[in-house]
Amino acid sequence: MDDLKLKISHLSDGVHEFNLIVSPSVCGLKEHEYFHEPIYVNIYLQKFQQNFVIDVNLITQVQLVCDRCLTKFNFPINTRERLTFSYDKELAGTDDEIKVLDSKAYYVDLSEDVRDFLLLALPSKMLCSENCAGICAGCGADLNVETCRCEKKTIDHRWDALQVLLENK
Ligand SMILES: [Zn+2]
Ligand SMILES: [Zn+2]
For a tag site, which of 35, 86, 118, 153 has the least CB within 10 Å? Predict the structure, then answer.
């Protein structure tokens, strides 16, 4: 699939299911640093007269950078969102959630919504693991795999100060 335009004009009332695989570029995420993998789009569409309720399930994997230790890690996304469209302008006016369709529209373009849903599904805190120890601000050691190199120095300096005190007695 090279777009996310869903033809709806010919659909009969009832349930229609679509399974698509798209690249991040299709939903405007081509240049986005996190999205590299194909996006599995499962669409469960219910049509009733002029109205369309579309449940979109998105599955992919993003590559994030840990806020604490700056290592890249994979993060699975599996998110489900609902969209509602209607040719009926009056009905759409009663609910902000309902998007109005132009009477001549024969498809809905889901690409922008899919992009928004994927961005919403990103974690607010990007951590390679809950217990990530991060990087030492002093010596730059990745504390997940190595021990801090500046800790010893600090102790040495304290010891020096103590020595001075003892010597001055
Ligand atoms: Zn980390
Ligand atoms: Zn350190």
Answer: 153
